[in-house]
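Researcher: Next sequence.
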Amino acid sequence: MSLSKYKQKRDFKQTAEPVAGKAEGKHIFVVQRHHATRLHYDFRLEINGALKSWAVPKGPSLNPADKRLAMEVEDHPYDYKDFEGQIPAGNYGAGYVYIWDKGTFEMLDPKGNALKEWKSGSIKVVLHGKKLKGEFALVKMKGGRDENAWLMIKHKDKYAVDREYNSEDYTPKRVIAKGKGEAEKGAVGSASKKAGASAPKKAASKKAAPKKKAAATGVKKKPKREKVK
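Model: Next structure:
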């Protein structure tokens, strides 16, 4: 698996995100809550030594009725499974990353091959996590405008639920608060930059004011000359 796109988007002198990593033992999966410009959940499956990754805007669900949009993104290095913390402002994906769930997985079909199923656009796995358990499917959408669009669907099994499932309900309040706090800091910083950029324009308009007065004074002097004539 190529990590060239992953490396091109990041400055590793500024971000603590891992550069590489080597897969060991059982196949792993991880779900990372990423409070960036837009809150989303990154679902990653280890396939052939790298992490195949999808951004899930609404987060995963244990309700089979939910077909969650999952946008495929660039492959991530294996060591990213342990990454948690702040990606500095100004860097790609700036925001707070929290490991929401992790564990191992196996193919639903004992003879199945993860890479082949990914290439076919239909991946069926059994997850063994703390929050996500049982059978899941990732199905690539066909005929749409975006070729990276997939659906993440929970199969009906003993772990499935029939109620509304919101991933945020299973996220610690301290994590939610930290993510919001970092987002507010970023908003304040960008607002300050905008204010600084607009300041010179206001100064220029004040300097131009005396010219307008001089022009008005000149207009008043002309009638006096006419009276003398």
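Model: The chain is about 30% helix and 30% strand. Residues 4-169 form one domain.
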